[in-house]
Write a structure and sequence with these properties.
A hairpin with a 3-residue loop joins strand 2 (111-114) and strand 3. The chain has helices at residues 8-16, 18-35, 42-49, 57-67, 75-92, 130-146, 148-183, 186-206, 213-253, 256-262, 265-269, 276-287; strands at 100-104, 111-114, 118-122. Strands 1-3-2 form a 3-stranded mixed sheet. Helix 2 packs across helix 7 (148-183) and helix 9 (213-253) packs across helix 12. It folds into 2 domains: 8-151 and 215-287, 2-Layer Sandwich (Zincin-like), CATH 3.30.2010.10; 160-209. The protein is mostly helical and 291 residues long. It is built from 12 helices and 3 strands, in the order H-H-H-H-H-E-E-E-H-H-H-H-H-H-H. One of its GO terms (molecular function) is metal ion binding. It comes from Lentzea albida. Pfam families: Peptidase_M48. Belongs to the peptidase M48 family. Its cofactor is Zn(2+).
Length: 291
């Protein structure tokens, strides 16, 4: 039986979210003061407690449908996926009923794990040979076993107020700037620019994490790539290493790594997945005898 435990990359991702979460608390606290000067602290406390919502199974379903546009499998798709998922869960020592199968309508081969229960594959992935598809499912179950998806969802929830505040500030700033240009006078244009600068200063004070985005974004991407390698490792430990290698080698033949190399350094730094070559190398190392 595979014991569930958080991977270090999940913990690292949670730590990287701390600046944004603190900004969210500040914004929620300011909103609380607008309603009550004496009990403003209830707002950030209730916001922290609200994080339990990510552990409610219905939350996974809502995100799968509303945010990711995933659908339930047809009876034919279910007949293909359920036996494979049962095999994976049997190897992992977990009940297959804990996971909900979902489908992404896409011509690209893809799969994902969401929250604590959702395992989704694209319609294109359904065309993979059964053993290859089973290895892909093992990789996604590995994300669940390591806690990657739950931590990502928790971080997303706590970052909502800060992200909403930044987007609202950008929209207001853009509106002010466009209004200044539409008026057409030099005075109006200068005034609009000054208002936008003042608004940006207020946004930075309210959400100082914005200044850390150039640093946090690559680190979050690095954490995501590590989590992918860790899910590969779990898949290999469950006995799916050779099949997963074949899937990755197939992607290499299809030019996946070549397109990645042409994307540029910045795109590679912000990529959520490591290259197929790196994943293949790590899987080969996993197969090598340990000293």
């Amino acid at each position: 039986m595979r014991r569930r435990r958080f991977d270090l990359s999940a913990v690292f991702e949670l730590l990287l979210g701390v600046p944004t979460v603190l900004s969210s608390l500040l914004i929620v606290g300011l909103a609380g003061r607008a309603f009550s000067l004496e009990r403003w602290w209830l707002f950030p406390v209730l916001w922290l407690v609200s994080g339990v919502v990510v552990f409610v199974p219905a939350m996974d379903r809502a995100i799968a449908v509303l945010a990711l546009n995933l659908r339930g499998p047809t009876s034919k798709e279910r007949a293909v996926l359920e036996p494979l998922l049962e095999e994976v869960c049997g190897a992992a020592g977990v009940a297959p009923q804990r996971y909900w199968l979902r489908i992404e309508n896409s011509k690209e081969i893809n799969a994902m794990a969401v929250g604590g229960h959702v395992v989704a594959v694209s319609t294109a992935a359904l065309a993979l040979p059964p053993k290859h598809l089973e290895a892909v499912l093992a990789h996604e179950v590995g994300h669940h076993l390591a806690g990657h998806t739950r931590i990502s969802l928790l971080r997303w929830w706590y970052e909502l107020p800060a992200r909403a505040a930044v987007r609202l500030t950008l929209l207001v700033g853009l509106g002010i700037f466009l209004a200044g240009r539409k008026i057409g006078t030099k005075t109006a244009y200068v005034a609009s620019v000054l208002l936008v600068v003042a608004l940006a200063a207020v946004a930075v004070v309210a959400s100082p994490w914005v200044l850390l985005v150039p640093v946090i974004a690559p680190l979050l991407a690095l954490s995501s790539r590590r989590s992918e390698l860790y899910a590969d490792r779990i898949s290999a430990e469950l006995g799916y290493g050779p099949m997963l290698l074949e899937v990755l080698q197939r992607w290499v033949r299809q030019g996946h790594d070549e397109r990645r190399a042409r994307a540029g350094i910045r795109a590679r730094m912000l990529a959520s997945h490591p290259s197929c070559a790196q994943r293949i190398s790590r899987l080969h190392d996993k197969k090598a005898p340990r000293p």
